[in-house]
Design brief:
With 350 residues, the chain is an alpha/beta fold. The protein has two domains: 2-155 and 332-349, Rossmann fold (3-Layer(aba) Sandwich); 170-330, 3-Layer(aba) Sandwich (Rossmann fold), CATH 3.40.50. It has 14 helices and twelve strands. The strands form two sheets. Strands 2-1-3-4-5-6 form a six-stranded parallel beta sheet. Helix 7 packs parallel to helix 8 (211-223). The longest helix has 16 residues, at 107-122.
Length: 350
Amino acid sequence: MTRAIFVIPGDIGLPTGGYAYDRRVLALFADHGIEATHMALPDTYPSPSPADLEETRRLIATTRPDDILLIDGLAYGAMPKDLLATFNRRIVALVHHPLCLEEGTPPDRAHELKRLETAALALAQRVIVTSKTTALTLATDFDVPDDRITIAEPGTDAAQRAKGSGGRPFRLLAVGTIVPRKGYDVLVDALVPLKSLDWRLDIAGATDRSPATVTALRAQIARHGLTDRVTILGPVDEAHLSRLYDTADVFVMASHYEGYGMVLSEALARGLPIVCTTGGAAAETVPDGAAVKVEPASPRALAWSIGRVLEEDGQLRRSIADAAWAAATQLPRWNDTARTVAAVIKELAR
């Protein structure tokens, strides 16, 4: 078997799309000829301290010279090139989305991350991305040669079609970590003019990545008198999340940018009608007929679209739900994802 070290910052069990991707691929590597070891880096990435960078150097030095390093982009893009030069190992970088494009990053820090990530990617022998959009971004904005990039889209588990709420109010569902990039403030603003309609919104996602964003979101919900209609559930386990999908009537996403948008494919897998923004790769993740799509950062457009989907006769809602269910048959599975990543590692090992 080909040996690889999967280098991931922080707790791999966290309920985010990136960590879910890493967990699923890591669990399937052995089936595709990869003897993979998980190496956990400090959880401060993408803003490591000097001590964390030194700990990273020490950990990498414990690997064998012939080990291939598969490094998650949450850490890799923030590693100085001087540190990477000490690794002296073959490197595959896994980029979910460029760090400098994270919404809410101060301009000076975004500029620094762009510089760091460009330099780091130049030192990787191969780069794996999760969407065509990210591949194009790395090629055009980060000078990564096309022949070093491989697209390995996230897999999706087969699921039963959602039953829905079975009545009123309509159940809206949003899933994703509460950080500025996810645009939850835009979503709440979009729901204000829809108060006359009978709906409830559940937001499922980690609340510890940006406490200031969570605090501001709660205040915004209260200010608009939506406390009894919008529920921030925080992180939920897989069984709870499955129930939320099953009882939802409409899936909504207001993200400013997505490297892929795994929650969109999860909604497709359950045949849910979708209203989403087109930031980053989100526009390509969902077929046009399976969603009503709007530009990011436009509460007015989002409100109009959600209102259309919640119309009394439900014709549009049923139409896009049927299209979503049909599209689910074309989604890649996690075994496909792991096979693609493993092939890159094995090719580099030759």
